[in-house]
């Protein structure tokens, strides 16, 4: 295996010769043969014995042999999910799993060697939680505008847009996490979402973008759960159509 071979092929070749690794799988777009030149590499290794020892040994290997620049760990249960940045730039995600936790929990999985176990699939996204996060973000965006904190307001408006996208993707049966299904949403919705982008930190612009965001949220809720839309309408409508001159208040609540 030459250094010109793809990184994931070189890593898998090394895994086959590692006595502590008893299984390997591709996840993400590469598992479905949908990877392009911009795709990350996502690998899962089944580990026999101490996970930390194996993960640390592979971490050193990624620095020494693959020129890693940085790494960090995603929170996990009984696994270690280690994320590496390589020069290029290129991202490599390696999950070190105990042998009894090696198996697919979603469709993006391809076992390359080893015995996979039958695991519970990942829980489906919860529309109630997505809706709750959406109105939470809308209120905190409003509060930030009233406090005169423009960049915090921009943060919450952008976060609100993300929840609307997730709700729309859930309704359409598209991937909901990290905007992965956003490019497949209909033009009607994405055109409306364009109006939610904050173009400057000026207060009038923040109020305009927040109003557009609240309007798109209400329209999406009307499609997904009309009863909830009607309950939330009295809260969201003033954000869409602000009445009178805003009054600056000194709030002391936190998200």
Automatic annotation (TrEMBL):
Classify the source by domain of life: Bacteria
SUPFAM superfamilies on file: Nucleotidyltransferase
UniProt xrefs under InterPro entries: NT_sf
State what protein this is by name: Nucleotidyltransferase domain-containing protein
Q: Which organism is it from?
A: Streptomyces katsurahamanus
């Amino acid at each position: 295996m030459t250094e010109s071979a793809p990184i994931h092929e070189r890593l898998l070749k090394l895994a086959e010769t590692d006595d502590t690794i008893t299984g390997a799988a591709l996840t993400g777009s590469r598992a479905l043969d949908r990877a392009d030149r911009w795709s990350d590499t996502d690998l899962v290794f089944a580990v026999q014995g101490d996970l930390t020892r194996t993960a640390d040994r592979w971490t050193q290997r990624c620095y020494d042999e693959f020129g890693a620049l940085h790494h960090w760990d995603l929170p996990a249960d009984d696994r270690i999910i280690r994320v590496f940045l390589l020069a290029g730039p290129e991202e490599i995600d390696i999950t070190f799993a105990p042998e009894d936790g090696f198996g697919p929990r979603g469709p993006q999985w391809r076992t390359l060697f080893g015995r996979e176990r039958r695991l519970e699939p990942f829980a489906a996204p919860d529309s109630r939680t997505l809706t709750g996060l959406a109105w939470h973000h809308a209120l905190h965006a409003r509060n930030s505008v009233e406090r005169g904190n423009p960049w915090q307001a921009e943060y919450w408006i952008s976060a609100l847009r993300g929840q609307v996208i997730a709700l729309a993707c859930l309704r359409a049966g598209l991937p909901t996490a990290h905007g992965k299904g956003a490019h497949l949403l209909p033009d009607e919705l994405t055109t409306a979402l364009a109006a939610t982008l904050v173009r400057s930190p000026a207060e009038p612009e923040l109020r305009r973008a927040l109003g557009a965001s609240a309007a798109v949220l209400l329209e999406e809720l009307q499609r997904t759960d009309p009863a909830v839309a009607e309950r939330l309408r009295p809260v969201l409508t003033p954000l869409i159509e602000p009445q009178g001159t805003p009054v600056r208040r000194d709030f002391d609540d936190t998200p």
